[in-house]
Amino acid sequence: MPISIGPGPDFWQALGWHPQPEQLSQLNQLQGLLREWNGRVNLTRLVEGDDFWINQIFDSLWPLQHLLQTGGKSRRCIDVGTGGGFPGLAIAIALPGAEMTLLDSVGRKTAAVQAMADGIGLTNRVHVRTERIETTGHDPGSRQGFDLAVARAVAAAPIVAEYLVPLLSRDGEALLYRGQWSVNDEQELNQALKPLQAAVIGVQQNQLPDNRGIRHVLTVKSRGLCPATYPRAIGIPAKFPLSGLGR
User: If one looks up domain 9-239 in CATH, what number appears?
Assistant: First the structure.
């Protein structure tokens, strides 16, 4: 096993979780693979030093503190719009009991993410799909099939809600990663959630280490069966959000 390096104890204390040696090794391997693949495919500028550890790893994992303490529990999770593999790959490492689906519509990105997942030994638990989320949401094998659905830096919250809610199992949770968050944002999200038969059950706020910015995460759960019409056809959720924006 490679020698584990990484941030000091204050970092993990702030996160409220400390990786096992194998997990820390995987995180370090992931940084190396991300650096390698980023030279071939433009995945992210957040690769080196604190850019990786704070803006990628910490920012991916801090909203999951209620899950990190039971990381070995069997869960079915999906990261929608995974891009360069975050937060999905970080979550897959931190939750060794999870089966993780990483979804993106850009083939060159999913190819890189698949290679990184394979390179850190996650082949059996991480499944990469090259597909539009509007299609995935109507796939019988995916719809209402996930205990956890996440999306970071994908689109406005009302749009993301339409992407994620149809994927949730009866007791599943959707985590919407946001930067700033306002009362107006919350009103628009609540409006979008009504036809989806879902609601916000919690809002978390955190300051990233080294004053790297305020982050918010909205936790959404279903309150009934999501109507079969959602998500709408490809491109429609973004063009005509359920909040009424763009109408």
Answer: 3.40.50.150
